[in-house]
Amino acid sequence: MADETKEAASEKTVVIGSGAAMSASGGHAVVIAQPRPVAPPILPKVSRRGVVIVGFWSALGLMLAGIGYTIVDMLYPRGIIPFEREIVVGTVDSLVPGKPVKIVDAKTWLVMMDAETARRNNGQEGAILALYQKCPHLGCSVPWREDVTREDERSGESYTGWFLCPCHGSTYSAAGVYVFGPAPRSMDTFLVTITDGKITVNTGKRTAGTTSNGARGVLPG
Ligand code: FES
Questions:
Q1: Cβ count near 159 (within 10 Å)
Q2: Mean pLDDT, to the nearest integer, of 189-197?
Q3: Mean pLDDT, rounded, for 75-99
Q4: What is the pTM of this model?
């Protein structure tokens, strides 16, 4: 009730026409109600200090979340294929005797021994060998160098085609047999299986290299 009274009081009214004229003519007064002015909304006050504090804690929270995510991602990497596994590396038909082929996925040199390689390394012609590319000295990747000629210290024979480590010069025969340099042994070999002409290298089955690497070659069935 009190509100209604206030409302009525707050409304401005405009009367059009004078009282004498209206009574003489018997007309009515016209009253136009004026709308109440609308008060602007009261917004909460935001201080500069408040903005700085919220910004600081938000940035700190984001930074900590980022660090946490990075740590978890490093501890539990996704989509990484383990190196040690069985890898189909090709077919027997694709190999050329005496020409080692690099298999990047398996970090392997695949060698099919020709008659000379077999003779020099006590192997069998046509047998296939998988040599781990890592040098047994300090772990450099060992390339095949068919342009290099040197003496085989086992026989005194000189011929072309060697595995030659670029780091400290260790030299290995085409069957990965150590002949020169600081390396402590011959190149390691991986287990090879051949089924229906397909060659599989098992990088989880590695055997330390010896002077009898050549005898580890596998003949296609
Ligand atoms: Fe190959 Fe040193 S790492 S000779």
A1: 16
A2: 97
A3: 90
A4: 0.68
